[in-house]
Amino acid sequence: MIIRRAIFPGSFDPLTNGHLDIIKRSSPLFDEIVIAVLNNPEKNPMFSVEERCAMIQEILPEIETGSCDLVVDSFSGLTADFAKKKQATAIVRGIRAVADYEYELRMALMNRRLEPAIETVFLVAAEEFSYVSSSLMKQVFTLGGRVEGLVPELVEAKMREKLSTDGRG
Ligand code: PNS
């Protein structure tokens, strides 16, 4: 049996409800989606790659994806190499607004050049999450703003924990 496998790559620092929306939307198109968490310590992330993967793993059972399986994995290096290693046929990315398109187009074209057999699939995010990004969530939360409804409850709790332990965002 041929498995239609996609990877959904990102920093996920942290996972937002916008990411969950894209995962749910892409699930009818694939048998398996690998949520591919980039190991990017040089970007000084709020959560380590292990913490990000563990959070997503804990949230997975709450995501309704029908018969599509969800897997969490981390990677370093090129997304195209990771997609090939996973024998994925597609790279899923969400587009929130027209501002995302130019950057996403450049990545999609570069990834196609690196791995011509792997297609990038763009999915349009729900309007209610069109302004939601991990970096905005971190900034607002760190400055004392409310982010409920925009990130999973577990993520909010972990951000609170993180702030109280090392005071950073
Ligand atoms: O959630 P993000 O931060 O927008 O995700 C960006 C990501 C991880 C998809 C992108 O930075 C990436 O693919 N990085 C891995 C290195 C790579 O493949 N670079 C060339 C992309 S064309």
Structure explained in plain terms:
- With 169 residues, this protein is α/β, with parallel strands linked by helices.
- It contains six helices and five strands; from the N terminus they run βαβαβαβαβαα.
- It has helices at residues 17-26, 49-59, 79-85, 98-114, 134-142, 153-166, and strands at 5-10, 32-38, 69-75, 90-95, 119-124.
- A five-stranded parallel sheet has the order 3-2-1-4-5.
- Strand 4 (90-95), helix 4 (98-114) and strand 5 form a beta-alpha-beta unit.
- The site of 4'-phosphopantetheine has 9 residues, from strand 1 and helix 4.
- 4'-phosphopantetheine (PNS) binds at residues 9-11, 38, 78-79, 107, 110-111.
Topology of this protein?
Elements: E1 5-10, H1 17-26, E2 32-38, H2 49-59, E3 69-75, H3 79-85, E4 90-95, H4 98-114, E5 119-124, H5 134-142, H6 153-166
Parallel strand pairs: 1-2, 1-4, 2-3, 4-5
Bound molecules: 4'-phosphopantetheine (PNS).
Order of helices and strands: EHEHEHEHEHH
From the alpha-carbon coordinates, what is the Rg to the nearest angstrom? 16 Å
Shape: globular
> Percent of residues in beta strands?
15-25%
Report low-confidence residues grouped into runs of 5 or more: none
Helix/strand class = alpha/beta
Q: What topology, given as strand order, has the largest sheet?
A: 3-2-1-4-5
Helix content: 40-55%
Q: Largest sheet at a glance?
A: 5 strands, parallel
Integer average pLDDT: 96
Please count the beta strands (DSSP E, at least 2 residues each). Answer: 5
Distance between the termini: 45 Å
Bound molecules: 4'-phosphopantetheine
Number of helices: 6
